[in-house]
Amino acid sequence: MHYHAESYGNYNASTVRQNAAVDPLERVVRLASGSAVVIFSLSTCCMCHAVKRLFCGMGVNPTVYELDLDPRGKELERALMRLLGDGSAVPVVFIGGKLVGAMDRVMASHINGTLVPLLKEAGALWL
């Protein structure tokens, strides 16, 4: 199977070739494309809780996938680690089907003012 992501910051769900319906990376891509804002999380993770609170506090209603509550969550977590290229798999945020990244990238985007335009472009925020 061949997967292609142009770069970490520009990863888009449409860049992955679909080869097998059960492939964890394909499932991540499909889930990430299903809503304007998607968060892959663990229900017991404090950083995941913080990122969910950030979006809810902004008036955004993200779709959240709790990997520890999914029977195939470990597979998805490994696929997310491959996408991110580092040791931490959660939280991982997609906006408009595009990978934003883990908590550090989300917070950096929030601080530098690029998060709100992304949310507006994806249709997750109107104000």
UniProtKB/TrEMBL annotation:
Subcellular location as annotated: Cytoplasm
UniProtKB keywords: Cytoplasm, Redox-active center
Pfam family for this entry, one: Glutaredoxin
Domain spans labelled Glutaredoxin: 37-100
InterPro entries reported for this sequence: GlrX-like_pln_2, Glutaredoxin, Thioredoxin-like_sf
Gene3D superfamilies attached to this UniProt entry: Glutaredoxin
Gene Ontology cellular-component terms listed: cytoplasm
The family this protein is said to belong to: Belongs to the glutaredoxin family. CC-type subfamily.
Name of the featured protein: Glutaredoxin-C5-like
Species of provenance: Olea europaea subsp. europaea
